[in-house]
Design a protein that fits this description.
This protein has eleven helices and four strands, in the order ααααββααααααββα. By secondary structure, the chain is mainly alpha-helical. Among the domains are: 51-135, Arc Repressor Mutant, subunit A; 155-219 and 228-239, no CATH class. The strands form two sheets. A two-stranded antiparallel ribbon has the order 1-2. A two-stranded antiparallel sheet has the order 3-4. Strand 1 and strand 2 form a beta hairpin. Helix 3 crosses helix 4. It starts with 50 loop residues before the first helix and ends with a helix.
Amino acid sequence: MGTQHTSARPLAPSRNGGQNRPTGRGSRARRVGGVVHQNVRHTTRFTVVGNHLAQHAELSLLAIGLGVHIQSLPGGAAVDIKSLAARFPEGAARIAAGLRELEAHGYLRRELNRDDAGKIVTLTISCNHPGRSAADEEAVRRAPARRTEAPRRALPAVPQPAYPSLDLLPTALGVLAGLRREDPRLHLSATETEHLAPGVVAWLERDLTPETVLRVLTTGLPSEPLHRPAALLAHRLADRLPPLPPLGTREAPKHPLQNCDTCDRAFRGPEPGTCGACRT
């Protein structure tokens, strides 16, 4: 056993209660491999990241790095592929693959919204704990004895359009995107929007204006918190659906405009192809 060097400089006390000090046989045991953390307490410019992301068993190292970077950004920062490719050297293809990994594991969620100019834009939501929302955390805080959540139930069915109305779909998406401006509780995901859109189209083809549909969906909402706003909207779309107008007053649905494959003129039709003049 070697002689102890009494003149050696003593170690500084640990800032974290000795959690990262090497352990082993005896008080002078030292670590000869692996990692030893030298931690300094952050007081500014830091981000709390869960180990479920930093040590994820299925995500690639690129996806983990992207997830940590996105969680560190302020709200409103650009996280599209082009912006991230300009910031990092990995390139657009690898960054796109990393974003898809994060989306598949619930760390990113994308929603379609309509801006003030009427343009449909993508909103990217970064989730620091997939499967848990702020409402879930509040419920757990108020009822600490109940730590498990029931599996998410499927949304109720919505009415389906009586006719193929592709030209009404953008209007229906605009109605759904405007719901949260009327009531912030009516915030819908992309999946919920896709489920509800045919029901809104079914209302619009009954000669109702978008403003009328919006008013029906937002008037008389309960005052208590809405735990499943999409389910409430689906129920209203089905329960309050008005009848179709009489056949004599209902206009035939218009097909979208197509470009003729032969003469390149515009014509209305259910799908691309040739116009009536070229077919004859």
